């Protein structure tokens, strides 16, 4: 690949440039050692949930859900939580964090049944629904009642659901704060447990002010669990504000992909990206694929273009209505649509069981996001394919990703002659997509919500901007 040879970036430059990616993993370990109580050793990985102290009823629920053995983060966090300690858990998405805080909360709920017992805060609506589903499945035998409080849904029906006094509330901070301020009779002054999931993302999405206001109205005497992929200065501040004498546990977050993943890149001119995308989708016809882009606008445009070419593509981004977002996910999970075109809203947290191919149409700007994206495929021991588009503008970004991975990936062998044959047809589909985008933008504009314009309300904050 000639572009790579021409661009000489020294190891030292890469280290400095990618400091934000590599710093966190080294600081994790030193911070963990500092936080551990004197004479305490890191707990060994348990073979069963019963060995962790989980009661038989919940162990059976774990078995029903297919949890065969505790993951490392569960093995470390659950015993401390059962002892009544506040816990900070550092682990990547997909490491089993939800059960790590859900099981101790449900076990405590069984010992002390109470309405409005626990609150879980999550950064995105989809993740909130997913967490609620996990609580309901794990607590099915005790009839646990959960309610999801997120933006984009009717506040009146949510107020009615809160009035029925559920055991667990799973919420995005913006909409929860709206209810705390405006819903008569709703209070969390008797709350016993608080879990903050994906704390780094919550703070990256400007939820800091909302979180501060929510924490002020919660009782000081409570158990708190904070889970995050990284321990940034913002997360450290949140920890000091929300936790009491916490213990920190961590699963080593090295930059790595699973061995069953076949990862490669395509070095192409920027103007031919659409052509190569269609070529690859034809190559992997019949297989499920996620196409990642960096903007809402590009996500919607590609979905229109692919539909014009006869592909079953569906978009997923933060400026769709909540019902449309859930509908897109459900159609993709059910297999009625084989292609999901998405912003990074689909990169973390969401459990999509079977994805054959991941295509990075737009490269992510950091290696951590790359790991999350390609982690959508090759899950649970299955094989998968990940191909990244590298144009003349992306060379340095790609080199940083390879450096963080610690290896050079192979170039995907594409038949250029076959690609160029489709030029006329793809150009026509692109013209149709542009026309549809104009109509789509006008409809959005008539409702006061054009792409990328206007201030974000509190209700819109829990939308992933991509």
Tell me what you see in this structure.
- Residues 1-44, 437-466 are annotated as: Disordered.
- It catalyses: ATP + H2O = ADP + phosphate + H(+).
- GO terms for molecular function: hydrolase activity.
- Its EC number is 3.6.4.13.
- It is found in: Nucleus.
- There is one protein chain.
- It is built from 20 helices and 14 strands.
- 46% of the residues lie in helices and 13% in strands.
- By secondary structure, the chain is of the alpha/beta class.
- The chain is globular and about 70 Å long.
- It has helices at residues 2-6, 11-17, 19-35, 49-52, 56-64, 72-82, 97-111, 125-138, 155-163, 173-182, 199-204, 208-217, 233-242, 273-283, 296-308, 322-334, 367-374, 395-405, 416-421, 423-446, and strands at 87-90, 118-121, 146-149, 168-171, 193-196, 223-228, 247-250, 261-267, 289-292, 313-316, 339-342, 357-360, 384-390, 410-411.
- It has a seven-stranded parallel sheet, with helices on both faces.
- It folds into two domains: 36-250, 3-Layer(aba) Sandwich (Rossmann fold); 261-460, Rossmann fold, CATH 3.40.50.
- The two termini are 30 Å apart.
- Strand 12, helix 17 (367-374) and strand 13 (384-390) form a beta-alpha-beta unit.
């Amino acid at each position: 690949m000639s572009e790579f040879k021409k661009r000489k970036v020294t190891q030292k430059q890469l280290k400095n440039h990618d400091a934000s990616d590599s710093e966190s993993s080294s600081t994790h370990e030193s911070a963990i050692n500092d936080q551990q109580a004197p004479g305490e050793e890191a707990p060994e990985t348990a073979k069963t949930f019963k060995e962790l102290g989980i009661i038989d009823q919940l162990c059976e629920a774990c078995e029903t859900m297919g949890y065969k053995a505790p993951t490392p983060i569960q093995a470390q966090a659950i015993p401390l939580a059962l002892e009544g300690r506040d816990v900070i858990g550092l682990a990547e998405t997909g490491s089993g964090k939800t059960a790590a805080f859900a099981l101790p909360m449900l076990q405590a709920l069984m010992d002390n049944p109470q309405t409005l017992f626990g609150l879980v805060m999550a950064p995105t609506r989809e993740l909130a629904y997913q967490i609620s589903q996990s609580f309901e499945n794990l607590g099915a035998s005790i009839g646990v009642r959960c309610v999801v409080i997120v933006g984009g849904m009717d506040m009146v029906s949510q107020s009615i659901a809160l009035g029925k006094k559920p055991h667990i509330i799973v919420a995005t901070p913006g909409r929860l704060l709206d209810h705390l301020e405006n819903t008569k009779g709703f209070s969390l002054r008797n709350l016993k447990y608080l879990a903050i999931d994906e704390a780094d993302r919550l703070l990256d999405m400007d939820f800091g002010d909302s979180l501060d206001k929510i924490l002020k109205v919660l009782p000081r005497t409570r158990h708190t669990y904070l889970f995050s992929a990284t321990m940034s200065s913002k997360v450290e501040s949140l920890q000091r504000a929300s936790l009491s004498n916490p213990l920190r546990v961590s699963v080593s977050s090295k930059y790595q992909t699973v061995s069953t993943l076949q990862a490669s890149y395509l070095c192409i001119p920027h103007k031919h990206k659409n052509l190569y995308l269609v070529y690859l989708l034809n190559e992997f016809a019949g297989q499920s694929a996620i196409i990642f882009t960096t903007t809402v606008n590009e996500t919607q445009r590609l979905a229109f273009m692919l539909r014009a070419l006869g592909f079953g593509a569906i978009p997923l981004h933060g400026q769709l209505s909540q019902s449309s977002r859930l509908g897109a996910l459900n159609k993709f999970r059910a297999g009625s649509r084989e292609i999901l075109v998405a912003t990074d809203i689909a990169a973390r947290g969401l459990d999509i069981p079977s994805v054959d191919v991941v295509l990075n149409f737009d490269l992510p700007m950091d290696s951590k996001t790359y790991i999350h994206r390609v982690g959508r495929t090759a899950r649970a021991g299955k094989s998968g394919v990940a191909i990244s588009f590298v144009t003349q503008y992306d060379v340095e970004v790609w080199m940083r990703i390879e450096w963080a991975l610690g290896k050079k990936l192979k170039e995907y062998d594409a038949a250029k002659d076959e690609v160029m044959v489709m030029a006329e047809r793809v150009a026509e589909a692109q013209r149709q997509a542009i026309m549809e985008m104009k109509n789509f933008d006008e409809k959005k504009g008539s409702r006061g919500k054009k792409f990328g314009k206007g201030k974000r309300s509190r209700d819109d904050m829990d939308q992933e901007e991509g």
